[in-house]
Design a protein that fits this description.
This protein is of the alpha+beta class and 390 residues long. Helices cover 48% and strands 13% of the residues. The chain is globular. Residues 116-322 form the Aminoglycoside phosphotransferase domain.
Length: 390
C-alpha cells in the first residue's frame, strides 16, 4: 500500500468528520463514545468511564481549567461525585488529552500513534514501579481519529512542577530520571507483551510517509546553525545517514524493551517529594534501551554538565537496570550504544524547528535551539557519526 496515498484519503475522511462535528457538536454520554474535546464530555460519560466498577456511584458535575494545545489538546477536569463515588475514593483531579485539531489527528493518526498513550496506561503502567501518572481511561475512533486519554492530574495530586526545557537540570534530578527509565526497561526487558508495539524503524517509516522529515531536518540544521558545532555544519546528508543507522540498531541489534520513545527533558516533572517522572506516553514503542537513555541525557544536560556526568549516569542506569530484571550490558558496550543513539533526538528537534508551513508549531524556537545545542554538541563530543560508521 502506498502510505502517502492512504494518508491523503484518510485526510479527506478525517476532514469530513470534523466538518460534521462542527455542525452537530456531539456530546459524549455513553461508555464507548469518544469525546471531541475535554469540554465536550458530560457527567453521564464521566460516570460511565470512572464509576463503571462502583455500583451506585455517579459523577454529579465537573469543571475544566488549564487548557493548552500542542500535539494534543489538554485540559484539567475536576470531578464531583455522589456519596458512593466519594466513599469509593474515585479520582477527582483528572487531565484529558484529546485530538481536537485536524493537524493533531493527521500527525498522531497518520503516524500510528493515536492509541499509544491509551495502550501504555491500560496495559503497561499498572505493571511497573516508576514515577509516571496513573491512567483511568482511553479510547480512539478509527474513522475520525478522535481520541482521548484520561489520566491523573499530577499537578494537583502530586504537586508536580513540569520541567522547563531551557533551564539547566541538577545532577540528582537527571540521575533520578535515568533510574526511572531503567526500572521501566528492566520490567519489560524482552517481555512478550511488548510485541504489539511499533518499533523505532516502523515509526520512522510512518513519519517519512506523512512528511518529508529528511528535508525538514536539513532545513532545521540551517535554522539552528548558530548553536550547532561547526564540524556538523552542512552535514545534513551524513547526519540523516546516522539517523537511519541508529534507528536500525535500536530496532534490530539491541534486546527489545518498552521505550517511552520521546523522553526529552520537556516531558518530565518533579513532584513535591522531589521525585522525577515522565509524561506524554503517546509514542511508546518497542526497541533498544539506549534510544531512551541517550535522548534523556543529551536533551536534558547542558554540555559541560553532560561531559562531567554522563559516564556516572550510565553506570547508575546499568545498575538499576540489572536490579529491575534487565540484562545489563558491559559498560564499554553500553557506552558505544549511548554514543550511537543520539541521532533520533537530533532528527526530532531539527524536524521541529525545520517545520514547513503546514506543520503544527509544536515547540518554541528557543526550546528547539536549546535542545539542539545540547544534542548536537553531544553528537560532536562523542563522534556519534564515526561510532555509527557513516
Amino acid at each position: 500500500m502506498n502510505h502517502k496515498l492512504w494518508l491523503l484519503g484518510r485526510s479527506v475522511t478525517v476532514g469530513a468528520h470534523m466538518a460534521g462535528e462542527a455542525v452537530t457538536r456531539p456530546k459524549a454520554r455513553a461508555l464507548h463514545d469518544v469525546p471531541v474535546s475535554g469540554e465536550s464530555v458530560t457527567p453521564d460519560w464521566l460516570t460511565a468511564v470512572l464509576c463503571r466498577d462502583v455500583p451506585g456511584a455517579r459523577v454529579l458535575s465537573f469543571e475544566n481549567s488549564n487548557g493548552s494545545r500542542g500535539t494534543s489538546t489538554r485540559v484539567a477536569i475536576r470531578v464531583e461525585y455522589n456519596d458512593a463515588g466519594i466513599e469509593a475514593g474515585l479520582p477527582r483531579e483528572l487531565f484529558a488529552k484529546t485530538t481536537t485539531a485536524f493537524s493533531q489527528r493527521i500527525l498522531l493518526g497518520g503516524g500510528k500513534m493515536i492509541d499509544g498513550e491509551t495502550r501504555f496506561f491500560k496495559d503497561f503502567r499498572p505493571r511497573v514501579e516508576m514515577e509516571a501518572p496513573i491512567g483511568y481511561w482511553g479510547a480512539s475512533d478509527a474513522a475520525s481519529w478522535r481520541s482521548i486519554a484520561l489520566m491523573e492530574d499530577i499537578a494537583a495530586t502530586r504537586g508536580a512542577v513540569f520541567s522547563e526545557p531551557t533551564a539547566p537540570i541538577g545532577r540528582e534530578q537527571i540521575e533520578d530520571l535515568v533510574r526511572n527509565l531503567a526500572r521501566l526497561h528492566g520490567t519489560f526487558w524482552e517481555n512478550p507483551a511488548i510485541e504489539v508495539l511499533n518499533t523505532p524503524a516502523y515509526m520512522l517509516d510512518a513519519y517519512l510517509a506523512a512528511i518529508d522529515m529528511r528535508k525538514r531536518c536539513e532545513v532545521g540544521l540551517v535554522r539552528a546553525q548558530e548553536v550547532v558545532p561547526e564540524t556538523l555544519h552542512g552535514q545534513a546528508n551524513r547526519l540523516w545517514a546516522g539517523v537511519e543507522r541508529a534507528i536500525t540498531i535500536a530496532t534490530e541489534d539491541i534486546p527489545p524493551t518498552l521505550l517511552h520513545g520521546d523522553p526529552h527533558i520537556g516531558q518530565t516533572y518533579r513532584t513535591r517529594e522531589g521525585r522525577m517522572g515522565y509524561v506524554d506516553w503517546q509514542v511508546v514503542m518497542r526497541g533498544g534501551w539506549a534510544h531512551d537513555f541517550a535522548y534523556t541525557v543529551n536533551s536534558g544536560c547542558e554540555p559541560d554538565d553532560r561531559r562531567a556526568w554522563d559516564r556516572d549516569l550510565l553506570r547508575a542506569y546499568l545498575a538499576e537496570l540489572a536490579a529491575a530484571g534487565g540484562a545489563a550490558p558491559a559498560f564499554d558496550d553500553a557506552w558505544l550504544l549511548y554514543r550511537q543513539q543520539s541521532m533520533f533526538a537530533y532528527a526530532a528537534w531539527a524536524f521541529t524547528i525545520g517545520r514547513a508551513a503546514y506543520q503544527p508549531r509544536m515547540q518554541s524556537n528557543e526550546t528547539c535551539l536549546t535542545l539542539l545545542k545540547r544534542i548536537t554538541t553531544a553528537i560532536d563530543d562523542h563522534d556519534s557519526l564515526g561510532a555509527l560508521g557513516v
